[in-house]
Design a protein that fits this description.
Order of helices and strands of chain A: EEEHEHHEE
Helix content of chain A: 25-40%
Number of helices of chain A: 3
CATH topology of chain A: Arc Repressor Mutant, subunit A
Distance between the termini of chain A: 21 Å
Strand order of the largest sheet of chain A: 1-2-3
Strand content of chain A: 15-25%
Largest interface: A-B, 14 and 12 residues
CATH class of chain A: Mainly Alpha
Structural class of chain A: alpha+beta
Radius of gyration of chain A: 13 Å
CATH superfamily of chain A: Winged helix-like DNA-binding domain superfamily/Winged helix DNA-binding domain
Oligomer: homodimer
DNA sequence: ACAGGCTTTCACCAACTCTTCACCAACGCC
DNA sequence: GGCGTTGGTGAAGAGTTGGTGAAAGCCTGT
């Protein structure tokens, strides 16, 4: 099983002791979601928390960074999926085994380790 | 017994910790009824609250979404029924054990009493 | 000014949802 | 039972939202 370690103070994410190498923005996205594990966070809220302001129509920043984070996490743990999409709503952070079920349904258990 | 959890802010419905996976519209229908638990809500009102406007004759949107919600809830709790039909009137949300009793009949007689 | 890395935006395409239609079953009334 | 009305159900097309690759814009240090 993949061991996830998060160090907010250093903006570092490690999986099995390997650094994910997230950039600042990428980590912010990751952290906003990870802090709210198992909860669905709307794009509006994510945007507001990171960029301070209302999410402009058709702004795709959040999606783009979610993807970048996904790519880096997947590189370290191909058999796990961390960020799940809730169509029309937002994203949810929940470490789950299995490539990616893409989301909306599925169970809700898991235990990530939020070290601080 | 089935444990029902509703998170309006996330538009999520969980039964025994399993996500129902409702879409935005589906959740809206669910929420309009759940907020008014044990009350019969007319199609007209449901439509007005979600679509803003008068329910066009022969518009079946409400029925279709009620079904979609029922299917998803039933998947998680086959032994429970949540949304009950009141023929000629509308729908009522009340979690009840038992697959489906298809509910109270209640007539829409001229001296009928309309709860408000 | 230039190079390298990070952020933001753009455009195209895939996936999903919403809405409507058609047909059938259930109900209420005679 | 027979008939007209209302609700259940499955499916399909249109419209919306998200995934993705890449270009353009910014910053910082050299």
């Amino acid at each position: 099983m993949a061991n996830l370690e998060i160090r907010p103070a250093e903006m570092q994410v490690l999986i099995d002791d390997q650094r994910a190498g997230l950039t600042v923005r990428e980590f912010q996205i990751f952290w906003v979601l990870a802090e709210r594990q198992d909860r669905v966070v709307t794009r509006e809220e994510i945007y507001r928390l990171i960029w301070d302001g209302r999410l402009p129509r058709r702004n795709r920043s959040v999606d783009v960074f979610v993807r970048k984070v996904r790519v880096k996490l997947e590189k370290l743990a191909p058999e796990w999926s961390y960020i799940h999409t809730h169509f029309g709503i937002g994203y949810r952070f929940s470490p789950e085994p299995g490539g990616d079920q893409s989301s909306a349904s599925s169970a809700a258990s898991s235990n990530g380790n939020l070290n601080s």
